[in-house]
Specification:
Jelly Rolls; elongated; mainly beta; about 35% strand; 7-stranded antiparallel sheet; 4-stranded antiparallel sheet; 2 domains
């Protein structure tokens, strides 16, 4: 007997996270010696790499000196999908918003800190530059300019623990304020940047019996090979069968987990998951629902 069921956006649990799906059988189904496998998955690469919860990696701070007074500014990153260039633009936006920039003789905005990818060193490089004590010749300052320091300083950037991991720095890393020296400082991340903490995600299913795994519910691993927001299409070259617990079922539950094996939030609920059930009588039953 062949039954076709596709789990798609209509099966997504409305929990605001798009990470759980439920397929309810029209009638209770008896499973005794059955196995299940993924036939195909189609979904969008839509899980964030920076968020307030659960990653808690959405803030970092910098300091600014006017006269002899130092003020700290916290940058809150909206939940989303970011590359290092995006984070650098966000830092520049904060400098503009707080009037912490000057304009050189060519009309170019001058910022006093940045973060860039150093491809040769497989690292994220943070640079800080000395803020002058007076307006350089030929330059201009924004109308809302906050004032100059009594002595030169480099903005002090501080990265909380989870943001530090994202860009490959030690927990709670801080640059130097470098007071009075008037020099440029550069720093390199000391571990491999984890710009996407969930470079892969797991697909877990209820009622799986796997004595060798913890949790036993994980049946598949999804690794995006596309750009952010693009469609992921998975067609396993062969079925990896997972034993279903014997019993009577009225539903199947599927959940997406991060690498920490905790539920992950997906921004896009559009997806299609096709499953295959083997009843061990030589017939493969394809579960789909359109």
């Amino acid at each position: 007997m062949v039954a076709t069921i596709i789990l798609n956006s209509t099966n997504v649990v409305q929990n605001g996270k798009n990470n759980s799906l439920i397929y309810k059988f029209p009638n209770s189904v008896q499973f005794s010696n059955h196995t299940i496998a993924i036939q195909s998955i189609s979904m969008y690469y839509s899980w964030t790499n920076i968020n307030a919860n659960p990653l808690e990696n959405n803030t970092f701070t910098y300091s600014w000196v006017v006269g002899g007074v130092t003020t700290n500014f916290t940058i809150v990153i909206p939940d989303g999908l970011y590359e290092i260039t995006d984070l650098n633009k966000l830092l520049q936006f904060e400098f503009i918003k707080n009037s912490h920039y000057l304009i050189d003789a060519t009309g170019k905005f001058v910022y006093y800190a940045d973060m860039v990818v150093n491809a040769n060193r497989y690292a994220i490089q943070v640079n800080t530059f000395a803020v002058p004590t007076a307006l350089p010749v030929g330059w201009t300052q924004p109308t809302s300019w906050v004032g100059y320091p009594a002595v030169t300083f480099n903005p002090l950037l501080t990265f909380p623990a989870n943001f530090s991991k994202l860009i490959g720095y030690a927990d709670n890393f801080s640059t130097s304020i470098n007071t009075g020296l008037g020099t440029t400082l550069s720093y390199l991340s000391t571990s491999a940047p984890a710009v996407q903490p969930n470079s892969s995600i797991y697909l877990a299913m209820s009622n799986i019996h796997n004595q060798y795994a913890s949790p036993s519910s994980i049946i598949y691993n999804i690794t995006p090979r596309v750009g952010l927001g693009e469609q992921i299409t998975e067609y396993p070259p062969q079925f990896a069968w997972n034993k279903l617990m014997s019993g009577t079922y009225n539903e199947l539950r599927i959940q997406f987990l991060g690498l920490d094996k905790q539920p992950i939030t997906l921004l896009d609920p559009e997806m299609s998951i096709v499953l295959v059930i083997n009843d061990n009588d030589g017939t493969d039953t394809v579960l789909t629902k359109r």
